[in-house]
Amino acid sequence: MFAKHLAVCLAAALFLSPAVQAQEASAKSYEQAFSDRGSSYILVFAYPSAAYLDWSSPSKLARTAVQSTLAKRTFSLPSTIGHAQIAWSCRKPDGTLISRGASGQSGEDNGQSLVGLRSGWGMSILELVFTDGHLESPTDVDSRIRSGAAGNQFSWAGFKVPVENCLQMVDFVENYQKSEAYKNYGFPVDPLKFEGAGCTSYANAALERSGAPLPFRDAWVRRYPIPEAQLGRFGEPPAHAAVFPKSRIPKRDLQVPLTDFLFGEQTWARAGEASVPFQYYDPELFYESFLHLENAYRQTHQLPLKTAVRTSQLDDFQQKLKAETDAWIKRLGAQNTPMELGEIAGFTGLIVDLRNSQARL
Fold it and tell me: How sure is the predictor about 18, in pLDDT bands with cuts at 50, 70 and 90?
């Protein structure tokens, strides 16, 4: 398990949350946020890695992944690599409930990353697709929320939207499930094309399909150039893993030892170095974004601020995220967009009413 989590961390935390629509008799913790029975809601949940994953270099990523694995085991935290999920409640204006559910994507349950790393695939594990992906149920979502709240590793945001936006997201979730795209878990696949997803790319795709105006979503993405010398390949891919046509894995055999990352000083590609561009939706940035949104609201209402980041300084991606979330809340405030704090499992989160035409510009 230790090595598996390390491998998955190197694989950029593929968060996959199963998309499942459900009408369940027992109340879920996230249903606390559905307080207005005449409104439709979209909720997004984020969980950071148990210990902060340092993506400033592949070697620092490997070493902090070890720390996160140990932290998760020791303190029973919700995720080694971070995670994201969604929930919804779609109602007609008269309050009639049309759909309620929660969804998430997950996978890599057979130690494929560990096998690949031990075999010398190196950073090519980021380009593998794991074929044991699966969906999380509303009960799974609720369980992780409670675990995240217990470990103080949970943030969330909610959006009141026109019922059409809510149903568009549900339509995506249902079609994604019917397509069985969830069986493919990894970075090379595109959830919008029903190829598969990671947990955060899946959550982002659902939000995109909803049509809700969330202009800061691009700031959830980290981008790094992987040196071609760190992309290994040796023998066949591990069981329950595949090289897809979109996978940028070299055809030649080259072993890249795991110890190069753990004990060496591997870096991202330098200027002029042969490389492959890599990007992913970072769950840590999901987590920070919802706290930034809430803090921007708290500041205007002279309420105590929350700690939004776990680093002493903001890197370029974190700075961009904070600037965009702050600017959005400032713009919504100038438009008198209704906003309020809600509560889930004892944790407050900001709920923004996006039904106003100005808020949708």
Answer: very low
Q: What angle do CA 279, 221, 201 make, to 5 degrees?
A: 80
Question: Helices 2-10 and 58-75 sit at what angle, rounded to 10 degrees?
Answer: 140
Q: Kindly state the DSSP code that residue 192 receives in the 8-state scheme.
A: G
pLDDT in tens, 71-91: 988 998 898 889 999 999 999
pLDDT over 90 (residue 9): no
Residues found in the chain: 361
Tokens of 159: 């959006």
Euclidean distance between CA atoms 85 and 281, whole angstroms: 13
**Residue 286 to residue 307: CA distance in whole angstroms:** 14
- Answer yes or no: are the C-beta atoms of 283 and 48 closer than 8 Å: yes
296-to-47, 227, 300 alpha-carbon distances in Å: 20, 38, 7
User: Where are the strands (E) in the chain, listed by range?
Assistant: 19-21, 40-47, 83-91, 97-106, 129-130, 134-136, 155-161, 221-227, 241-242, 275-281, 339-344, 347-353
What's the pLDDT at 356? 84
CA distance 237 to 8: 15
Structure tokens belonging to residue 195: 């190829």
User: What is the residue range of 179's domain?
Assistant: 2-360
Q: Which residues are 343's β-sheet partners?
A: 348
Query: What is the SS3 assignment for 66-103?
Result: HHHHHHHHHHCCCCCCCEEEEEEEEECCCCCEEEEEEE
In whole angstroms, give the CA distance from residue 170 to residue 164.
10
Read off the pLDDT of each residue in 131-147 and give the average, rounded to a whole number: 97
Q: How far apart are the first and last CA of the chain?
A: 47
Nearest-CA neighbor of 129 among 243, 226, 277, 15?
243
Residue 333: which residues within 8 A CB-CB, separation 6 or more?
Answer: 300, 339
pTM of the predicted structure, to 2 decimals: 0.90
State the Cα–Cα distance between residues 322 and 302, nearest whole angstrom. 19
Predicted pLDDT of residue 66: 82
Structural domain total, the chain: 1
